[in-house]
Design brief:
- It is a single chain.
- The protein has helices at 113-124, 146-153, 176-182, 196-208, and strands at 3-14, 17-23, 35-40, 50-53, 62-68, 87-90, 103-108, 132-137, 157-161, 170-171, 189-193, 216-218.
- It is α/β, with parallel strands linked by helices and 220 residues long.
- The chain folds into 2 domains: 3-90, Translation factors (Elongation Factor Tu (Ef-tu), domain 3, Beta Barrel); 103-218, Nucleotide-binding domain of ferredoxin-NADP reductase (FNR) module (Rossmann fold), CATH 3.40.50.
- The chain starts with a strand and ends with a strand.
- Bound molecules: flavin-adenine dinucleotide.
- Flavin-adenine dinucleotide binds at residues 35, 50-53, 66-68, 70, 72, 74-76, 95, 110, 113, 195, 219.
């Protein structure tokens, strides 16, 4: 089923990432980590659906999306033109990333979106103990919700930059060297979300480090 929802507010949270607050349809339920198909309700765009993840909490009276905009022919660049009272078309929630237990949340760029809702829910439930967020970014200005994650997790929010030298952050990709340095407990879950390439590489490396299939959570 498709729901037509009004935009309540839209703002920039980085130079190319928008936060979009939208109305929540009646009786609409999602689990933290789930996504849905989204289209912009403007002439010619209604059928151009793209998947985005809910970043709000299930109990909130609105829905929130965090959308990275890419330049080119695609849909996400049109998010730059959206205003309050414009409409989106959203489908039913789906997805295989959900919270199973304490562990490491490993993300590349906008791949952090399923972990926003999951970590906000854990914070609301007082269950942030033992959770670690590792986020790979191109540069400092690409880090999504840095202040919020730092307040939530303190030193258990570890950023690395792949395209900028900066004394305040670790340098390089989330590879074997990085994981060996920062993973201190292999008994919990490993949640991975990024580009297909990054997800594949990180999972392969985690397995080399002894992580079992049933400890891995990612979008299949
Ligand atoms: C389950 C799921 C949940 C998702 N949740 C979110 C979310 O919450 N927030 C979010 O911002 N994105 C999310 N994405 C990714 C998002 O769906 C894509 O970024 C979006 O579909 C791109 O649409 P587009 O029409 O702008 O680009 P497309 O027309 O698909 O591609 C145009 C160009 O944009 C660039 N591009 C597009 N996507 C990517 C990418 N992922 N990495 C690098 N370059 C890219 C490429 O240069 C590409 O050639 C999710 C994807 C999945 C599968």
């Amino acid at each position: 089923m498709t729901h037509t929802v009004r935009i309540i507010a839209v703002d920039n949270i980085t130079h190319d990432v928008k936060r979009v607050l939208i109305e929540k349809p009646l009786d609409y339920h999602f689990e933290p980590g789930q996504a849905t198909e989204v289209a912009i309700n403007k002439p010619g765009m209604e059928n151009q659906k793209r998947p985005f993840t809910f970043t709000s909490l299930p109990a909130d009276d609105h829905l929130e999306l965090v959308v990275k905009m890419y330049q080119g022919e695609g849909v996400t660049q049109a998010f730059d033109e959206l205003n309050t009272n414009d409409e989106l078309l959203i489908g039913e929630p789906w997805g295989s990333i959900s919270y199973k237990g304490p562990g490491y949340f490993i993300a590349g760029g906008a791949g952090v979106t399923p972990f926003i809702s999951i970590l906000r829910k854990l914070e609301a439930d007082g269950k942030l103990e033992g959770q670690v967020l590792m986020l790979s970014n191109k540069t400092e200005k690409d880090i999504i919700l840095e202040v919020e994650f730092r307040q939530m997790l303190g030193l258990k929010f570890i950023n690395t930059l792949t395209q900028e030298q900066n004394d305040r952050y670790f340098q390089g990709r989330i590879d074997k060297n990085f994981l060996e340095k920062f993973v201190t407990d292999y008994s919990g879950y490993f949640y991975v979300c990024g580009t297909q390439g990054m997800t594949k590489d990180v999972i392969k490396t985690l397995k080399e480090l002894g992580v079992k299939d049933d400890q891995l959570v990612y979008e299949k």
